Write a sequence for this structure.
């Protein structure tokens, strides 16, 4: 056999081996495969109970269950669009009165846009703020109005999500950039808005009127002001005894978690430092036993799970994390009593863990969802929406 023929056959074998190796590594990237289950399983959304339809698209309100699927059941890319000319700071969603699902995106290009789901067709563009649109959250009032609260470098405004008209006067009080907004709907249908600002305070508001719910939550004692301690994230939640709590995440050389009574403005726990130097993302959710839980991420893939009652760390770091700096966190519920926590990082990867046990969900290697840093994620029924630094928004199918 000639040397040329031998080299040709060697190259052919190498290419064939490379294809087989690539196929195996692709299946390893599923974050939804559950180890220890005879058939590979994935998380797929089930119908949301009628009582949760007031906030159907908030990550902590989406119920999922395990369903059997094929061994190749990865997150499938449904659509991707270049949504904005600049970074997309946040993506969230809501359901219109006519049943249509929408995504809402806020960007550094000053605009807030709405997109159809799942086609990702542009439905509306608004510029409710004169500077960077830093954060957006959606909620539903008792009278059925769908609303969105948009924060920027100079204002916080509440708008009717379907018409764009103001719902209430501008939320005034913050003196610096408002970096985070969130909404919480209690069992009585009352909506509490929470805003986090670089001025060192978090504030709570009535979602229907825009009036202050309670006093500002100051992170710096009065005798030390005007020193400021930027607050990057804040969330409200109910305790088992029905009392209201607010968790805040502030950063000054290290990430500090505090728990508050929003009615009195009293700090109930914290500030607590769990070994994370910096964090910009946090989520609040009840675990499978309905106990309040908090999760926040930091550099080198650090994800801390903390008690919503005391603020103490339950899991200092999620094991086997292979993420870089964590930039976004969302939660998914399973009917089997296991809560899945999905984290995204600055390199466009995601990884999942059980929030009840800390065990990784799926293969140890993260799944690549974006080319650059993921800024925000949200769950919309059977889809995961991902917004990234390059202005793109992608919609991923959860396998059925």
């Amino acid at each position: 056999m000639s040397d040329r023929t031998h080299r040709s056959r060697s190259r052919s074998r190498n290419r064939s081996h490379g294809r087989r190796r690539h196929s195996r590594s692709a299946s390893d990237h599923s974050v939804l495969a559950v180890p220890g289950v005879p058939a590979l399983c994935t998380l797929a959304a089930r119908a949301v109970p009628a009582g949760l339809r007031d906030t159907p698209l908030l990550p902590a309100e989406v119920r999922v269950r395990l369903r059997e699927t094929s061994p190749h059941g990865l997150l499938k890319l449904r659509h991707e669009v270049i949504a904005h000319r600049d970074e997309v700071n946040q993506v969230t969603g809501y359901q219109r009165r006519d049943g249509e699902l929408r995504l809402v995106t806020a960007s550094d290009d000053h605009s807030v846009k709405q997109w159809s789901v799942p086609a990702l067709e542009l439905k509306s563009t608004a510029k409710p703020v004169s500077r960077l649109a830093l954060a957006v959250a959606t909620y539903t009032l008792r009278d059925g109005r769908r609303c969105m609260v948009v924060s920027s470098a100079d204002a916080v405004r509440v708008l009717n999500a379907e018409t764009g008209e103001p719902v209430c006067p501008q939320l005034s009080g913050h003196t610096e950039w408002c970096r985070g907004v969130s909404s919480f709907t209690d069992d009585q249908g009352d909506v509490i808005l929470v805003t986090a600002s670089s001025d060192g305070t978090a504030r709570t508001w009535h979602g229907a009127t825009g009036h202050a719910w309670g006093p500002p939550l100051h992170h710096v004692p009065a005798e030390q002001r005007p020193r400021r301690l930027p607050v990057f994230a804040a969330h409200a939640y109910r305790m088992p005894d029905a009392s209201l709590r607010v968790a805040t995440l502030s950063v000054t050389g290290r990430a500090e978690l505090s728990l508050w009574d929003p009615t009195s403005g009293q700090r109930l726990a914290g500030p607590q430092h769990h070994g994370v130097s910096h964090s910009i993302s946090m989520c609040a959710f009840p675990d499978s036993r309905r106990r309040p839980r908090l999760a926040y991420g930091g550099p080198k893939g650090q994800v801390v799970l903390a008690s919503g009652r005391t603020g103490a760390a339950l899991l200092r770091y999620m094991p086997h994390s292979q993420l870089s700096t964590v930039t976004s966190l969302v939660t998914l519920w399973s009917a089997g009593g296991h809560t899945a926590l999905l984290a995204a990082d600055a390199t466009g990867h995601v990884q999942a863990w059980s929030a009840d046990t800390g065990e990784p969900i799926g293969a140890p290697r993260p799944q690549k969802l974006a080319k650059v840093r993921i800024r925000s994620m949200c769950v919309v029924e059977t889809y995961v929406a991902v917004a990234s630094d390059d202005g793109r928004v992608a919609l991923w199918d959860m396998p059925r």
